Amino acid sequence: MADKDEIKQQETQEVQKKKNDKKKPEAGEKKSLVTRFMPKVIIVVVVMIFAGAGFTLGRLIAGSPTSKTAGVSEQGQSSQLEDWDARDSGADSQKSWYYHLDPVIANLNVDDATRYVKASLTLEVSFEMNEKKGKAFLDEKKPILTNWLTIYLASLSLEEIRGDRNYKRIQSQVRDAFNEKLFPDSKPKIKNILFKEFAVQ
């Protein structure tokens, strides 16, 4: 009887070992699937995160122009839109034209006489003024404009030139003064002053 009991125990142990042996490869297969696919999943997730961050950063950088060129680019875009609208409506195809002034260099009003500003301006002139006649008129008046601009810039201090607000203030003051000098008794023809260059050294 003892032999039969021992034989049954051995048989049951062998059956359990076979069952355990069958279970082990399945667990090993599960582990190997997880270990095989986990690095790929991690790589895909990391690539997606970096791609999203790169896209967002690119949109932020491209969407924020510097303060010096922000006004110029916005004005350029609005004038292009006006041109398209005018063409669609059958009106004049140009709403304005541009006149480039020669660069002006002036010493700033500071204790250190070596500080100066170099400015290159473009005048945006209303279409009400004929472009050919207007350019001839502005060529004739260019010395007066250059002289006034040099004196005006020389009167400014370093603090009065720095910053976005000051750039806009300078633009409006130059525009108003040029209109007053050129068209004292008529409607202003200079719509805007654009900076091509405004360097302080």
Give descriptors for this structure.
single chain, about 200 residues, alpha+beta, Tetrahydropterin Synthase, Chain A, four-stranded antiparallel β-sheet, 4 helices, 4 strands
Overall description:
By secondary structure, the chain is an alpha+beta fold. It folds into 2 domains: 1-64; 95-200, Band 7 domain (Tetrahydropterin Synthase, Chain A, 2-Layer Sandwich), CATH 3.30.479. 64% of the residues lie in helices and 15% in strands. It has 4 helices and 4 strands, in the order H-H-E-E-E-H-H-E. Strands 1, 2, 3 and 4 form a 4-stranded antiparallel beta sheet that branches. Strand 2 (104-107) and strand 3 (116-126) form a beta hairpin. The longest helix is centred in the N-terminal third of the chain and has 62 residues, at 2-63. The chain is rod-shaped. Mean pLDDT is 77; it is low at 64-74 and 76-93.
Uncertain segments: 64-74, 76-93
List SSEs in N-to-C order: HHEEEHHE
CATH superfamily of the largest domain: Band 7 domain
Radius of gyration using CA atoms only? 38 Å
Number of separate structural domains: 2
Shape: rod-shaped
Mean pLDDT: 77
Strand content range: 15-25%
CATH architecture level-2 label of the largest domain: 2-Layer Sandwich
Largest sheet properties: 4 strands, antiparallel
How many strand elements?
A: 4
User: Tell me, what is the CATH class of the largest domain?
Assistant: Alpha Beta
Which structural class matches the secondary elements? alpha+beta
